Amino acid sequence: MKPSTSCVHAGADLRYTRGVNTPIHPSSAFTTSSGQPNLYPRYYNTPNQEVVVRKLCQLEKATEGILFASGMAAVSTTLLSLLQQGDHVLFAEQLYGGTLHLLNSEFEKRGISYSFVRGTTAEDFAAALHPKTKIIYIESPSNPLLQVLDIAQIAALGRERKLITIIDNTFASPINQNPMELGIDIVIHSGTKYLGGHSDLSFGAVLTANTALYELVYHTAVNYGGNLNALDLYLIERSLKTLALRVERQNQNALELAHFLSQHPKVRQVNYPGLTTHPGHEIAQKQMKKGFGGMLSFVLKEEAEVNSFMERLQVVLPALSLGGVETLVCIPAQTSHVKLTKQERAELGISDGLLRLSVGIEAPEDLMEDLAQALG
Ligand SMILES: *Cc1c(COP(=O)(O)O)cnc(C)c1O
After folding, report:
1. Taking the model in full, what pTM does it have?
2. Closest listed residue to residue 93, CA positions, set 340, 292, 357
């Protein structure tokens, strides 16, 4: 099945009614039956959990997966299930803020060390390996600068050195990028973003085609208990039916806005992997099959104008999250990276004039008109 078809049909469980939708199974108690596994929400095996996992496995070319109540539950359960005292993790430098906070606050007290890689190539990662490195963890495209990492090369390095490779694939979505096909061991999503797609659900997913790794994460997940409930799972299944449609439109809109912004006299720079001027464009073309995603960022020539720009917007909403049907904008220097000094932000390439745009599914003309009037 092609992804658009998988979005609609994969995993559905239509055995019990004549309805075309999976029924909601709200039970937390299930009758036991000899020889059958016990069903329980925290065992991640109730009917609505299984339906959504099957759909996501098809979309990400995985064989097993676990759904959590947030993206961070997926990230923390995965990392902490695979790591123990003495282990080292190599992280890509540009990481989601919540993940960075997890390392800063939870790793040291568990005796787990980590370091960051600035570059985008396997050579950059190879040069930073440590004798105790167990995991390579990356994001591509990254937040908020849309840096593109060479996923296949980094996955090959992981295989060669017998390391576990993990990618947070939230920004690309499984419609645009399937890292397991490129050799990555574990894919994580914050479903709160594109998978949910309507800014009204919180969930996360861990997906893999490696049964041994799945078992390790699963046993910790049962202990940590980050499971979802049947009502939310029903809404997630419903959202996923339109994932391909939404993401394809977001790809088109973002590309159009990226071109529009790059020609605007008030804009200094646009970061979007779909632009031929983006340093990672060629790699993005190889690893992002359908499009370059709905996320972009841009820098105003006059840093001082960011706040008045935000205030003049009429259609585009100022908000922190991303991946929904509505176009959202935020100022990373004042939000996700506000705790860093200006100097620290500059080292990461985040200027005070940087704006991050999560492009929705509105008519691109309306979005361009709104951005144009707000840019002045
Ligand atoms: C939002 C996000 C997360 C965390 O997801 P939550 O659902 O907020 O816990 C992790 N990674 C990326 C890239 C994100 O954008």
Report:
1. 0.97
2. 340
CA distances from 358 to 22, 105, 121, 369 (A): 31, 28, 26, 16
Give pLDDT tens digits for 291-302.
999 999 999 999
Q: Is the model's pLDDT at 344 over the cut of 90?
A: no
Residue 77 near residue 223 (C-beta atoms within 8 A): no
Tokens, residue 231: 């009502």
Exposure string (b/e) for 338-371, b if CB count within 10 Å is 16 or more? eeeeeeebeeeebbbbbbbbbbbbbebeebbebb
The pLDDT of residue 339 is 84
**Residue 333 token pair:** 């220097």
Q: What phi and psi, each to the nearest 5 degrees, are found at residue 264? A: -80, 130
Rounded CA-CA distance 280/122 in Å is 14
What residue type is assigned to position 24 of the chain? Answer: I
> Could you give the 3-state DSSP secondary structure of residue 115?
strand
Active site residues: 42, 96, 168, 193
Residue written as token pair 């200027």? 351
Question: Which one of 76, 77, 79, 96 would you pick to mutate in the ligand 1 pocket, going by the greatest count of ligand atoms within 8 A of its CB?
Answer: 96
